[in-house]
């Protein structure tokens, strides 16, 4: 029964997250709901919530505040923009995806996602305009690296909470997080964009073949619309003008 209650509370939390309820309010509502369903009295429940919030903030607040200060220093001083332009100039236009990926990764460690996004978005637009490359081609690696660092690496809130909850080592968490983040950003960045490009050209090729086939079918004066999926066409080969038309109709 306890496991079922926990599963329902997790599902309730996911539901409120999809409805864009404030994270603080959703967590508080889920905590109160879980405590009542598990049979805790109101006094014990409030004491447990107070203790949990206090212990979490005690190990979290200092790291988050210092991380925010470091990120603000990088933002105001222009160091983040300088890092990004230097990396892009070093990698060159042909490897623009990898330079943007590394830029987002380095800036995403000290900066929160929203701050890094605000800093890098103008740079992404400038690069897309200068190189005449698709915006998605350049922006996807940047978004992948910022998201991964925000989820995997301290001093971001999620990893720090887990470190405190499991009494883990912060340095080892950062090191292992980087090892896991590297393949994640490569797959979610350049590889995913390449897959999109392959899919786009495959779709274009398929549509071109379909258009050509439809053209030759209609030139044979076939009953095309009555047998579109079966491809059993009533072709009059005497009216076909070439072997290609015979192949397309047969």
Descriptive notes:
Helix content is 79%, strand content 0%. It is mainly α. The longest helix is centred in the C-terminal third of the chain and has 50 residues, at 170-219. It starts with a helix and ends with a helix. The relative contact order is 0.06. Mean pLDDT is 76; it is low at 221-250.
List key phrases describing it.
250 residues, mainly alpha, 10 helices, disordered C terminus
Number of helices: 10
Question: How many strand elements?
Answer: 0
Order of helices and strands: HHHHHHHHHH
Mean pLDDT: 76
Report the portion of residues in β strands. Answer: under 5%
- Uncertain parts: 221-250
The largest pleated sheet is described as: none
Q: Give the % helix.
A: over 70%
Radius of gyration: 28 Å
Q: What is the overall shape?
A: flat
Based on secondary structure, the structural category is mainly alpha
The CA-CA distance between the termini, in Å, is 64 Å
Quick structural gist:
The protein is mostly helical and 250 residues long. The chain has helices at residues 2-18, 23-37, 42-77, 79-91, 96-108, 113-131, 135-152, 157-166, 170-219, 243-249.
Show the helix and strand layout.
Elements: H1 2-18, H2 23-37, H3 42-77, H4 79-91, H5 96-108, H6 113-131, H7 135-152, H8 157-166, H9 170-219, H10 243-249
């Amino acid at each position: 029964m306890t496991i079922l209650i926990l599963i329902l509370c997790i599902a309730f939390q996911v539901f409120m997250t999809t409805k864009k309820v404030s994270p603080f309010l959703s967590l508080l509502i889920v905590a109160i709901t879980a405590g009542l369903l598990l049979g805790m009295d109101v006094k014990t429940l409030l004491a447990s919530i107070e203790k949990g919030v206090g212990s979490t903030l005690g190990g979290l607040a200092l790291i988050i505040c210092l991380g925010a200060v470091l990120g603000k220093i990088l933002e105001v001083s222009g160091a983040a923009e300088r890092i990004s332009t230097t990396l892009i100039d070093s990698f060159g236009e042909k490897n623009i995806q990898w330079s943007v990926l590394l830029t987002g990764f380095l800036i995403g460690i000290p900066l929160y996602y929203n701050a890094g996004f605000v800093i890098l978005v103008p740079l992404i637009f400038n690069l897309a305009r200068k190189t005449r490359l698709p915006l998605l081609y350049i922006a996807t690696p940047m978004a992948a690296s910022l998201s991964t660092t925000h989820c995997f690496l301290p001093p971001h809130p999620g990893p720090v909470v887990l470190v405190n909850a499991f009494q883990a080592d912060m340095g080892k968490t950062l090191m292992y997080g980087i090892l896991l983040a590297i393949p994640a950003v490569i797959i979610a960045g350049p590889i995913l964009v390449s897959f999109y490009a392959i899919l786009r050209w495959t779709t274009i090729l398929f549509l071109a073949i379909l258009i050509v086939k439809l053209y030759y079918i209609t030139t044979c004066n076939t009953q095309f619309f009555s047998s579109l999926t079966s491809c059993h066409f009533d072709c009059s080969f005497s009216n076909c003008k070439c072997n290609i038309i015979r192949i397309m109709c047969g």
